[in-house]
Amino acid sequence: MTRAVPSAARAILDGDRRALARAISQVENRDPSVAPVVRALYSHVRNVPVVGIAGPLGVGKSSLINLLVARLRELGRTVAVVAVDPSSPYSGGSVLGDRIRFSRRADDGGVFFRSMASRGEAGGLAAATREVTRMLAAANFEVVLVETVGSGQVDIAVRDVATTSVVVLVPHLGDEVQTLKAGLFEIADVFCVNKADLPGAELARKDLAELVGLAAARGAWTPRVVSTSTFPTPPLGIAELWSAIEDHERFLDDSGQRATEERRRLATEIVELVRERVGRELSERIDRAPGLRKLLDEVVARRIDPRTAAERVERDRPRRG
User: Which of 90, 214, 225, 294 is deepest in the core (most CB within 10 A)?
Assistant: First the structure.
């Protein structure tokens, strides 16, 4: 039996931006009433470029995205931007400053911008980001850009959301090589040396190109290295950056890697969703279930260790066929 499409989902498919914004808020707030909308939209999700823009704070990611949006609009492409801002791990609050920086494009119907709080996520990405990017793809946006919070080494979580990951660095940032060894090198499909008008930019680009050449190619793809600058008039390297992103997107299709990577991302998402739900259920039960309270008392009293307690909980958890 075919399920009826919720009116909110139909409105999103028809291009209603207010309905889209409301649904995104519900996803971000983990409102269970949005589940039918998410399910209805899933079959309408198209394979569009989801470009993750990662890198340390202060490298100019927001300015770079602003220019990428302008470039995409020149090419006639509709684009959605998800800017994940830092938030308190306690209150979940966030300044959401990127909303201010991008507000000048609010009158362009071909651009949709949304700030999301990271809510303390270690990778700098809100747990809802995957669902939101899929909703945007279902809403007929041709490109989705995702800006991470710039939490440096742990920005690697963007790999589980984006089809193409761009790592942005600037000259004289510090120990760039150490930063890359910490994880950013492994996720980059494209390296962007921004603020290329500064001294040392060409050396930084050459160093990155040398590192890329020494590393083994990931899935036969060799990461591109491009230089950009957002301040000169006109800006430098924006068309080249988008061209490098398109090259990687074509590689995904031609090599069959797109399907492989999508399967990996979805497997990761399913595991994380199950872990989140089981953890939430256990947290809710631990203070009221007599057996779990007793188990916690034993851990507090040092009669058993937390690992043993977790093993007992897993062993005693009801199994579903």
Answer: 225
